[in-house]
Amino acid sequence: MTSPEDESLSDSAWREIVENYGERPALFAREPLTVAPDVDADPEPEPDPPPSLDDDQSQGNLFEALTRVEHFHPPVPPPIPRPRTWQRAAAWAGLTVAPVLALIASLTSTYLPPPIGWILLLWPIAGFLYLVFDMPTNSREPWDDGSRI
Fold first, then answer.
1. CA nearest to 128, candidates 93, 82, 84
2. pLDDT tens digit string along 96-131?
3. What is the pTM of this model?
């Protein structure tokens, strides 16, 4: 708990900090800029009013204007990269295919013999360990930290 003396000490400390802070900046010291209107310039023409949706002809024009909009077409994605070796393919299959097979087997209550169950359990672990130990230890370029976007 704080006592009233503590609050007065903190108030006086803050007051001292504010007083010794230095010169306060002058806000709005300069007068705002005023722009004189240009008398010689032609006034901007009034824009055409938007078409009314009440008459049939303007609805047709509006529909044509809306259908002329170009749509974004994304670039063709690059092909899926293929593993360099069959060992890497087996490791990636262990990380992706084995859990899906185990999930399907458990959802459908399919009996799996114990050796197949152990394979579905150990295959992802072995694939992960293979991929970790197969990673390159040196960077591709001297300034490369290995991250990619």
1. 93
2. 999 999 999 999 999 999 999 999 999 999 999 999
3. 0.43
